[in-house]
Amino acid sequence: MLIDGHGRKVDYLRVSVTERCNFRCQYCMPEKPFSWVPKENLLSFEELFLFIKVAIDEGVTKIRLTGGEPLLREDLDSFIKMISDYKPDIDLALTTNGYLLPEASQRLKDAGLKRLNISLDSLKADVASKIAGKDVLDKVLDGIDKALAVGLKVKINMVPLKGINDDEILDIMQYCKDRNIKVRFIEYMENQHAQESLQGMHGKEILAKVKEKHTIKALGREGASPSFNYALEDGTEFGLIDPHKHDFCENCNRIRLTAEGNLIPCLYFDEAMSIAEAVRNKDIEKATQVLAKVLKDKPKENRWSEYNPNEDDISKRAFYETGG
Ligand code: SAM
Ligand code: SF4
């Protein structure tokens, strides 16, 4: 079992398989063009898998593949199959913007993927393209339908932004209700790569919007999930991911691995240790040692509630590198 320096059980590994993306979401990517990490710096799937096996053997029971856009990485389904064959009962999930799902859903399902979180910030074509930087809505909606049709379990992620999509919270809720899928509203997390003018909605404001039409009942956090669950009057459940809240980190159970091999204990802070050399040398003992050190030093809590971009310890890594 993996226990961090604050006594929390860590059993969840998020793996970013690429930082590259086919979208340029305003809350995640800089507007100006930038260069990607050279491909030779990325770990191969075999190298990532070597660390994943260490993590599973040490107690990780849940793995989420993310990015950047994970479906851009070639042969992702063979990587999914490697993990799923190694530990068939692992809770294996993927977070995607959905754009490539019309073609990829069946392959992902056949490879052993169980669950998908799909980002859907708007049901209006012009707003969706304003947020993502290109015309995306039809493909994303088609991707959601295809994923459901092949039998993947789907959740929707929405990041409500003031003056952009804050009028669509109830519409997205209804869209999900119609398909019997759960939506999670994510508070915008301030970061240095997002468009400066953006203003996110805080949890209380999101709940106030929902209350304009519904009565809601607080259900609580689902185990160590970052999502606080609520139910509408008819039992429909939805989640709120509110990292600005003080108790958000109490049960944090996760660590993150980037495509370059940086093992990151907390999204908010810059700290990370590389497992790249260890896995390139197939040095399992070293990889296990790095994992233990990262867990020992995992910070107690983020400081989004008092976000100040000038503080030194705030991570300069973008969410498309760490997987959000
Ligand atoms: N490209 C995939 C996608 O968009 O779903 C996976 C990577 S993305 C970084 C993972 C999640 O992080 C998405 O649900 C996205 O909406 C969320 N995200 C990205 N930047 C964020 C921010 N600044 N605040 C809150 N959520 C953010
Ligand atoms: Fe790409 Fe996802 Fe970031 Fe949007 S949120 S730019 S889809 S990585």
Q: Which features characterize this protein?
A:
alpha/beta; binds S-adenosylmethionine; single chain; binds iron/sulfur cluster; 19% strand; 12-stranded mixed beta sheet; 324 residues
List the helices and strands and how they pair.
Layout: E1 12-18, H1 45-58, E2 62-67, H2 76-86, E3 91-96, H3 101-111, E4 115-119, H4 125-132, H5 137-149, E5 153-158, H6 169-178, E6 182-186, H7 203-211, E7 216-221, E8 227-232, E9 237-241, E10 254-257, E11 262-264, E12 273-274, H8 276-280, H9 284-296, H10 319-322
Helix pairs in contact: 1-2, 1-9, 2-3, 3-5
S-adenosylmethionine is lined by residues 21, 27-28, 66-67, 69, 95-97, 119, 157, 159, 186, 188-189, 191, 194, 319-320, 323-324.
Characterise this structure.
The protein is of the alpha/beta class and 324 residues long. It has one domain (12-322): Aldolase class I (TIM Barrel). Helices cover 30% and strands 19% of the residues. It has ten helices and twelve strands. A twelve-stranded mixed β-sheet has the order 7-8-9-6-5-4-3-2-1-10-11-12. The longest helix has 14 residues, at 45-58. The mean pLDDT is 91. Iron/sulfur cluster binds next to loops.
